[in-house]
TrEMBL record, chain A:
InterPro entries: AAA+_ATPase (IPR003593), ABC_Ni/Peptide_Import (IPR050388), ABC_transporter-like_ATP-bd (IPR003439), ABC_transporter-like_CS (IPR017871), Oligopep_ABC_C (IPR013563), P-loop_NTPase (IPR027417)
Protein's name according to its UniProt entry: ABC transporter ATP-binding protein
Family to which the UniProt record says this protein belongs: Belongs to the ABC transporter superfamily.
Record flagged with keyword Magnesium: no
NCBIfam families for this protein: oligo_HPY (TIGR01727)
Source species of the chain: Ruegeria haliotis
UniProt keyword terms in alphabetical order: ATP-binding, Cell membrane, Membrane, Nucleotide-binding, Transport
Protein location: Cell inner membrane
Automatic annotation (TrEMBL), chain B:
Origin species: Ruegeria haliotis
NCBIfam families linked: oligo_HPY, PRK11308.1
InterPro entries, sorted: AAA+_ATPase (IPR003593), ABC_transp_ATP-bind (IPR050319), ABC_transporter-like_ATP-bd (IPR003439), ABC_transporter-like_CS (IPR017871), Oligopep_ABC_C (IPR013563), P-loop_NTPase (IPR027417)
Gene3D superfamilies named in the record: P-loop containing nucleotide triphosphate hydrolases
Entry similarity comment: Belongs to the ABC transporter superfamily.
Protein name: Dipeptide ABC transporter ATP-binding protein
Amino acid sequence: MQGSEARSDTESTNPILQLHQFSLRFRGHPEPAVDGLNLSVSAGETLCIVGESGCGKSVSAMALMGLLPQDIIDIPNGQMDFEGHRYDLRSDGLDASTRGDRMAMIFQEPMTSLNPAFRIGDQIAEAVLHHRNCTRTEATESALQMLRRVGIPAPQQRLREYPHQLSGGMRQRVMIAMALINNPSFLIADEPTTALDVTIQAQILDLIRELQSETGMGTLFITHDLGVVAEIATNVAVMYGGQIVESGPVGAVFDDPQHPYTIGLMSSVPRMSGSRDRLITVPGTVPSLADMPQGCRFRTRCPFATDNCAARPALSDVGPDHAVACHYAPLEQQDEVRCAM
Amino acid sequence: MRDVILEARDLTRHFTLGGGLFEPKTKVRAVDGVSLTVNRGETFAIVGESGCGKSTLARLMMRLDRPTSGQVLFNGQEVQDLARRDMAPLRRDMQFVFQDPFSSLNPRMTVGKLVGEPLEVHAPELDADTRREKVAALLAQVGLLPDHANRYPHEFSGGQRQRIGIARALASGPRLLIGDEPVSALDVSVQAQVVNLLNDLKQDLDLTLVIIAHDLAVIRHMSDRIAVMYLGQVVESGPADQVFDAPRHPYTHALLSAIPEPEPGRVHNQLTLKGEMPSPSNPPAGCRFHTRCPFAQDNCRTHTPLLDAADTDHQVACHHWKTIPEAGKPAPPRRRSVGAEERFALYRAALQTTQASATHREETS
């Protein structure tokens, strides 16, 4: 088994979506913003991509959905296997008939993603009309059912309302209804709860989990919140500077984190119980794309970095399906690291 | 005797909306009868979800806005009666740190100018050279370099910009710093840096901090006392340890238990709330939380509960706090694998070594 894949599926389950060696550049920047990404998601699983702003998590998702115009990005490398079809991402992304039908996406800010000038019901029905051969009445009927499924009270009345009449949590439910109305086998959720209050976030996470167990869809969930990851993920991929630095089943990554960045990130998160001591941080900030170091991209902020880190570390297995890209993993067994203390 | 630096007495702030040709006027009760005291030298946190009135409360306490009724006292002096020309000392002693480091700094001013501006206002006697020195000292205090003074805000990352905002707030030598979501726009690793910085500054400069936030884990790390707001009112207040470990108001319990913890499989003592916060323009009668409260009874719908002392300095506004089940203390974080615990210790040690050598380099250069 290759160590370079973010996966934990047993041999029996077939991945719904696999991404091979996906790289992406912004035009005008020679350094890749996403560099050699491999992902694999099976039915009913949730793969969380976690990382800080600028790590390439959102832009990857947008590119997979074929939502980025060719004049701002360049994809030098990458293939995607989705539902038995291989897409060469260099030339053709997801086609318009698959997008929104078999693969759907929900976004962070439901207010800017919904059209303020159209009624909720019409916006949801549009997704059906676009992909199915049916009448407007049928489409509206399925929109109504979908609103009911995502737990919107008084759905009949809501159909005729505009986005501004709904609260943030309700808008996100509408977004989810719109994404799932065609029964996609794969859902991309880009920070769907970041703009919401915690009590509403808990409701939306429950809803996504529930719908996922009903439909068995695979989910790629993008977030920066390790708490949300722990709640919803089957597998995790930690990204830094456009590369996966650690990946594996959620239990393994949280219980046995190996990469210094993962360790730093986890130490930075204040907890609701236990010690209230000074937080241990990751020093410095993420370098801009132009200043990204060669080799291990984390080495400018890593307290363990040595000259060896100028060579890029490969993702290699440290446990079942648990892979890490660090020359010094596991840290506690490296004499060099111990002696430096 | 407690030394109170800031006090709010029965503050209300109502906004009037609408009143157009066909639209009836509606009154939004953003802050509705809030009383609280902030002691000198502590970190006081105001928490609540969006729309609970916490930012309006902060603006009232800063006198960036005037209350509909009630009083704000700073060092025992009423602030809303002050004439414009008498405000300078107040502005000097009380400063604000804003949420968004991208929109709160003038993009056309250099960092030196931004941080020096409050000095020009509050210490006009300083000559340009002394002011420059003072700016350099302020930048050093927040962890920036002296030559950053010549750069513009767009050249900095979010965390660095928030440091600039803090340096600017510190320039006048304030006694009290009010931060409205000072770290919520930042990435986790940078957020932790700024939380540490604020804690250090508080110690070093003997500051009092008032922090407005929705992130309860951050609040738990920073504050000595907290007040929880719901729909314009304080529902629970008290020492942070007590409120976090033994919340007595069902809303506080629900809020605390809704926070996802970075620990897969952690069992939550979760109290899930149905529905959403009602609009502050039409708050429910009686206890404002009764529409979402799983323990609501008849008298909650008709009678407004007053803040009741659950313990010394711990107050709760609920008719039934004595009889509803206690939330129970949250379990301590689970220990990670042996190897991982060793790695975290190594990481901590390595950071200290690198930081120590960095300071050493700075001192020798």
